[in-house]
Design a protein that fits this description.
The chain has 369 residues and is α+β, with helices and mostly antiparallel strands. It has three domains: 7-128, Rossmann fold, CATH 3.40.50.20; 158-226, ATP-grasp fold, A domain (Dna Ligase, domain 1), CATH 3.30.1490.20; 229-360, ATP-grasp fold, B domain (D-amino Acid Aminotransferase, Chain A, domain 1, 2-Layer Sandwich). Helix content is 35%, strand content 24%. It is built from twelve helices and 15 strands. The chain has helices at 20-33, 55-61, 64-67, 116-124, 133-140, 142-151, 167-181, 205-216, 260-264, 279-295, 331-338, 343-362, and strands at residues 7-14, 39-46, 70-72, 75-77, 84-86, 102-106, 159-163, 186-190, 200-202, 221-226, 230-239, 244-252, 270-272, 300-309, 315-321. Strand 4 (75-77) and strand 5 (84-86) form a beta hairpin.
Length: 369
């Protein structure tokens, strides 16, 4: 990239998801942290109803200090791809020359982190930060993700899957299978959601049906996972074909487990970076994190979450998050800061990786003629 060139970065944020508010926080944090000498930032807001936000809605979605540094942009124009999305945003500041050259889809959960927005950007021909369509979709569906991990020989804790449509007739059979195959405690969770939304810890049979039905409100597919008495540790990944792993961090939740309230509301949850775990365990976590990233064909970034079983130090791979919370105090950014890459350098590297991936994909042949 030319010296003194300012990257025209488009940040897509919000979204039709239970993690909408988290996306707003991530977007505001990135906007505040970026050096205005390096980036011209435009914002594309997606409302909770899944519509492109108009100018009034964009102002409601971002704090004033972040709005002062951005330009609302009314269209995603794919140039030669002839793909165009138009919103009702109107800004006197922008013109055709201000169109973003690269996008950062800072959206978490369904309709953002699950391959849908990535597919749109691919078809439109835009470079974008983060994992591609396949990795994003697999990373969102915990059932498919775990199947691939198991196929790759990675250590996944025992679990069962049930379709919510079968609960009316199969809840008793499911409960017997849990007792026989997993044992209490277990966790019920929606297969396609993040930030611990809809997750319940089930201690015994008295809590089982109500908890499973609660999780079923959020997805048609529910996972029932064996509860492991463990510490929760995480590792951040950065890269494309040769991904690098950060130091390992530990989550010290305020509650019995790291639920939504413990993550985003309680001030008592803590992160310990680096985690106070044996060096051999830390090396194994980093190795498995890279393998998990490669297993789903990841690119750009991801955070990989683990359980370190108390008493045995056995490592269990929990899940991979292809667009983790992205603020300077989020685990992903803090892990890289502790590894020697500060927030601005991290975003700069992600931009480089996105251009690199886009360039390499464009060099591939698409037909024999």
């Amino acid at each position: 990239m030319e010296k003194n060139h300012k990257t025209k970065l488009g940040i897509i944020f919000g979204g039709k998801s239970g993690e909408h508010e988290i996306s707003l926080t991530s977007a505001a944090s990135v906007i505040r942290a970026l050096d205005p000498r390096e980036y011209d930032i435009t914002v594309i807001g997606i409302t909770k109803q899944g519509k492109l936000a108009n100018a009034v809605e964009v102002r409601q979605m971002l704090p004033t200090d972040a709005l002062d540094r951005v330009v609302p942009f009314g269209a995603l124009d794919g140039g030669d791809a002839k793909m165009r999305l138009i919103s009702s945003v109107s800004s006197g500041k922008g013109d055709a020359g201000s169109a973003p050259e690269i996008y950062f889809p800072l959206m978490h959960g369904p309709y953002g982190e699950d391959g849908t927005i990535q597919g749109l950007l691919e078809v439109a021909g835009f470079p974008y930060i983060g994992c591609g369509v396949l990795a994003s979709a697999v990373g969102m569906d915990k059932d498919v993700m775990k199947r691939l991990f198991l196929h790759a020989g990675l250590p996944v804790a025992p679990y069962l899957v049930v379709d919510s449509a079968s609960l009316e007739t199969e809840i008793g059979t499911l409960e017997k299978a849990v007792v026989c195959d997993l044992g209490y405690p277990v966790f019920s969770k929606p297969a396609n959601l993040g930030s611990s939304v809809g997750v319940c810890k089930i201690h015994d049979e008295d809590e089982f049906e109500e908890s499973v039905r609660h999780s079923a409100q959020f997805d048609h597919k529910i996972l029932i996972e064996k509860g492991i008495n463990a510490r929760e540790v995480e590792c951040a990944i950065l890269g494309n074909w040769e991904p690098q792993a950060s130091v390992v961090g530990e989550v010290l939740p305020a509650h019995e487990f790291y639920d939504y309230d413990a993550k985003y509301i309680s001030e008592e949850s803590r992160l310990e970076i680096p985690a106070r775990i044996p060096e051999a365990a830390a090396r194994e976590v980093r190795d498995i994190a890279v393998r998990a990233f490669k297993t789903i064909n990841g690119s750009g970034l991801a955070r990989v979450d683990f359980f370190l079983e108390r008493g045995t130090d056995k490592i269990w791979l929990n899940e991979i998050n292809t667009m983790p919370g992205f603020t300077p105090i989020s685990m992903y950014a803090k892990l890289w800061a502790a590894s020697g890459t500060d927030f601005r350098a991290l975003v700069r590297r992600l931009v480089e990786l996105a251009f690199e991936r886009h360039r390499e994909r464009n060099e591939l042949r698409i037909s024999q003629v």
